[in-house]
Amino acid sequence: MELYDIFKGIEKNLSDANKQYGFTRKESAENTLTFGGDKGSYRLVHNGENNILTFECAYEYSGENTEYNTISRLLLDPENIDDREIRSVSNEILEETERLFKTNKPVNLDKVKMPKSVSRSKAKNGLISYDVDSLANRFGALYPEFKDTIKQMVVDYGEFLPETFFTEYGNAKVLDVIKNGSEAEQKKLFKALGEIYEDGTNEVQDVIGVTILGEMKNDPEMMAVADKYMTEYMSGPVHEINKLTAKKNKYTKKLKNPPAYKPKRRKAFSLANTLSEQQK
Q1: pLDDT tens column, 135-148
Q2: Per-residue model confidence as pLDDT tens digits over 183-222
Q3: CA distances for 237 relative to 54, 121, 244, angstroms
Q4: How far apart, in Å, are the Cα atoms of 115 and each of 16, 125, 141, 215?
Q5: Cα(252)–Cα(82) distance, rounded to whole angstroms?
Q6: Coil, strand, or helix at residue 108?
Q7: pLDDT > 90? residue 11
Q8: Cα(10)–Cα(33) distance, rounded to whole angstroms?
């Protein structure tokens, strides 16, 4: 089948979605199919050498100057494709365009549940460890003003993203409590963090030790507050982490530029766990 006919079939299958998003077909090269409108643009680019069809997206359409980002790649061999496979390829593209361009209706966050925490008794008995959802739940209980932010993250991404949440939202609150909070507030914060850290997974230990408390960057006044309330189990790694985060080195570079986020996978770089092992 000719690439022209394949593109024609894909365009037909995408017609309803393009109308919904206000997209029209733009001038394209022989191996490229481009659609654009007020919401942006997407295009399909076929490489004849390896038969890879690349799906690219941009949120601003500027004609030839449009800057596209690669979203996905599919194998598409014009010599071995039929109408059924064209529909299959079209459906995959439809899923991508819906995810990228569909305007979602506002969500009633009151009906969205907070991430569920592991049972305290089960964690203490070693039956199961605290995870990042437990941390989100406990943080929302401590500071209810962040509940909607946590819920919205779950709506947007399907799960709680701890590094993103604390870097962009939660750390400001934590550092303010450490710097300016009352003794009761500081004690309550470190009690919650210490409990989850002690009976938590490697991932949640990393989040607490590195992402959150590593932001103290060895500030003497904040470290003095932390020393007053930290558990002995957490204190050693947090001190070592702060020695590293206070200056530029290979660890802080990796923390500032972590590997691409992959859901439901344990992080390869576990600084808190590494430091804990070194102290045994």
Answers
A1: 999 999 999 999 99
A2: 999 999 999 999 999 999 999 999 999 999 999 999 999 9
A3: 45, 25, 11
A4: 36, 22, 11, 24
A5: 51
A6: coil
A7: yes
A8: 9
Q: What percent of the chain has pLDDT over 90?
A: 57
What is the Cα–Cα distance from 18 to 145, expressed in whole angstroms? 39
Cα–Cα distance, 191 to 194 (Å, whole number): 5
Rounded Cα distance, 57 and 77, in Å: 22
Q: Is the pTM of this model over 0.90?
A: no
- How many residues make up the chain in this entry? 280
Structure tokens at 187: 């004690």
Instruction: Return the pLDDT at 253.
Output: 54
Task: Retrieve residue 122's tokens.
Answer: 């089960």
Distance (Å, rounded) from C-alpha 235 to C-alpha 279? 11
CA nearest 59: which of 109, 93, 89, 103? 103
Question: Cβ distance 73 to 53 under 8 Å?
Answer: yes
200 bridge partner residues: 130
Write the DSSP symbol of residue 105.
P
